[in-house]
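Justification of computing resources. Each target in the renewal requires a structure prediction run like the one illustrated here; the chain below, 393 residues long, is used simply to show the kind of job we budget for.
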Amino acid sequence: MTPEVTPRPVCARCRRAKAVCYCSKLTELQTKTRVVILQHPRERDKAIGTARMATLCLPSSELLVGVRWGEHPGLAKALSDPTRPPALLFPGPGARDVLADPPSSPITLIVVDGTWSQAKNLVRDNPVLKSLPRYAFAAPEPSEYRIRKEPSIEVVSTIEALMHALGALEGDPARFRALLEPFRAMVDAQLECQALRPERRQRQPRPMRERVMKLPPGLTTRFDDLVCVVGEANAWPYHSNKHAPDELVHWVAIRPSTGEVFEQLAAPRGALSPNTQFHTGLAEEDITAADRVDALFEAFAKFTRPTDIIASWGHYSPNLFVECGGRIPERLDLRALAQQLANKRLGTLEAVAEAVGPKPPPLTKGRAGRRLAGIALLVAHWRAEATRAAAES
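Resulting structure tokens:
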């Protein structure tokens, strides 16, 4: 018979086992700032999460759990308070430094709780969050979250982020350092428990199985139809009152089977965003002097064939092309292909290309030309690897 396991007593307030309860270290802090924490569902039951701890210290705060926030009534209510306009605490283009330049009146602070990857996806996939004005900060001290690995030294836990942000927003940094007391108690208790655990037996490494490199038709039987593309946009920051839909201003392409290269600029209908020159690496006079986007579509139609497969790194470039009025018959996502071949999530196009070989010269001007060269390098590398694997089998 299996011995009966007695469940450990759990604290009803912090929901931690009573042996590692941190409630004695909690201090309630009233704020003029309205705090709304949006928690990814996968974080809800994490014992070492800090969102619940933050809400226990901040009695006027709210903790909402979800992934899609466009029609969430709780968030909609929080965003509609005219006396405390909303702002998102998340780094990004145009974000104000909350430590150096805090607002002069109370706000509703929206905080995303999850791993760095989960938080990025929540903001990226929810226009209601992406459109909010942003605040961010460079952590003035290293994180004390020693029980969880963060992607970089600048990343801090949710409760540490609130400690820094509220200290600036409320004009009293010393008062909000009380948020660290339960946090430190939790971290110390967790480390003590880990030290008492017996050493786990390490698994013997299994021999790696050879992965069969399966390439799609666009890189094999239909290679002549492959056209790799990169698009650049006139994109206004989401917090700007001039925010408008992204407009295609630079479109480049290469047909790898022949080496033919296409490049054309398009002048935007509206004003040029101040960030466009910086991100694209193009001169303002070159963009504004170009023909309208219809001329770009006409020229690209002459470069391509009805049977072509339009390949890109991710979905942004082809989506931008179509949303601005262009037509793409068949697509291939090279980023998804790269992740499938590597059997893991990957970094940027530049990082993946750099791991393959020496940095190639740009194929056209601007950032698009550098990215297009990286894509062409990856396509050539995958085809060479597939040929070598076939010869060895």
